[in-house]
Design a protein that fits this description.
3-stranded antiparallel sheet, 2 helices, 5 strands, rod-shaped
């Protein structure tokens, strides 16, 4: 069993100890086996908030790194333009 907690993106119905449990979208889903969690993640039926936050942080860092050369070129162009005004 996975100790991780996921968030349902759709209604998730599962059987735990012979009991049928249905989780509504937005509610936490816990107690899944690793295999079930992998399958539900692949179907996009659940999300992993920790992994999602990490991925968003990685995207922000990548976007900032991609902007760095542009910002440097812009700064250099502005400095050049300012020096030729006088």
């Amino acid at each position: 069993m996975s100790k991780k907690t996921y968030v349902a993106l759709v209604h998730v119905t599962r059987h735990v100890d012979g009991e049928r449990i249905t989780t509504a979208p937005g509610e936490e889903v816990s107690g899944l086996s690793d295999h079930d969690a992998q399958q539900l993640l692949a179907m996009k039926a659940i999300s992993d908030p920790v992994a999602d936050a990490s991925a968003k942080a990685d995207e922000r860092r990548a976007a900032k790194a991609a902007d760095a050369p542009f910002k440097e070129a812009k700064r250099a162009a502005e400095a050049e333009a300012a020096s030729t005004k006088a």
